[in-house]
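worker-03 picked up job from queue 'complexes'. Input manifest follows; two sequence lines, order preserved.
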Amino acid sequence: MNSSRRKVLQGTGGAAVLGLAMAAGLFKPGSAWAQGAAWNKAAFDTKSLNDAVKAMGGAAATESKDIAFVNTPDIAENGAVVPFTIASKIPKTEQIALLVEKNPNILVASFSIPDGTEPWINTRAKMGQTSNVIALVKADGKYYYAAKEVKVTLGGCGG
Amino acid sequence: MADPMRIRAKMEGDKVDVRVLMSHEMETGQRKDAKGAVIPAWFIQNVTATHNGKTVLAAEWGPAVAKNPFLAFKFSGGKVGDKVIVTWVDNKGDKRTDEATISAG
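worker-03 finished. Artifact:
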């Protein structure tokens, strides 16, 4: 039995082991994982556009004609899968979010757009019922939005 | 371990067109089972896409993103043969990373 090895293991403890692991580069701060770990719970709990903007750290959103819903249906036959494409022409667009007014929580998804990535997003969302959908864009620190009504013939939440 | 993502990355002019199809239940936490008990929420919270170590898209999702989520976006600065890496993490801490090689348009 190698008793000196045991002593070393007992003596060092968890913190030192973690420190060694960090030094070895196993946990890189600022890596994709660290960035991905941020999730704005407060914003996802909100029920209105104003509250969502506030939870994201903004003051209020102004309506803008430079945000467009592309290829987004006026009538969705199946609320469980509604395709949305949002494009922003506002310079310095840094974030695009999708909100559905009558869903239990208004915020569906939020995308941060780094330099070099098009201010263009295509995804699919669930809609409980016919509702206004809102594209919220953060550009140069300010919030802008555009809204559109999408009619749902079959609900996507429970039903 | 969750099923792999299907990722397609293709040159479109000078931009890279990325399409990702994930395999995930995306349970809302609003539904009830046959006995009336609430089915707990289970959904992807974070999606990150990187190219050459640079984040090209970071997303925060709520439970209202559709089941088996689809996501498409475009970025510039990529070329044929480069890799695009996509990672998601769900609210139970499960995660999945997959990659695709950029193909000619």
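worker-03 released lock.
The beta strands of chain B are 6-12, 15-21, 44-51, 54-61, 70-76, 83-90, 95-101.
The radius of gyration of chain B is 16 Å.
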